[in-house]
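User: I'm new to structure prediction. If I give you an amino acid sequence, what do you actually give back? Let's try with this one:
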Amino acid sequence: MVNPLLSYLEADDAVLDVRWQRLQDWLAERFGKEPGLEGALFLIGIQSHGHGFEPDLDREAKQSLIMEGTYCAFETLGVYARVGLEEDGHWIWERLIDHPPNLPVEAQEKLLRTAILRFFDTLPEASDAHEA
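Assistant: Good question. You get back a string of structure tokens that encode the predicted 3D arrangement of the chain. For your 132 residues, that looks like this:
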């Protein structure tokens, strides 16, 4: 069986690069700097928790939000699904699709950027900021 994530790797790199830069520009305009991959995942994690930004988070809390953002982004590609909430308010995630094995770093980054773009497509205030 062919992994459905492989179809995202066939997307035109130039189109993805343009959409990614538009998103980065939009985020920089809103937050004062381009966030890059980790910053975008951090913002998605904050959005998922619905608490807003907390300036004095420790490293562990920031890493947790980045992981939450990763799950949320990959949810848009059908990789993960939310299956419940823990007592502390963190989502419980179930993996639905395994990542293709032995993907080069560039391909992994392309999947992650695609997932982040798809996440921001779901936000009305952001969706037209990075469409090609």
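You can read the tokens as a compact description of the fold. Here is one thing that stands out. The two ends are 31 Å apart (CA to CA).
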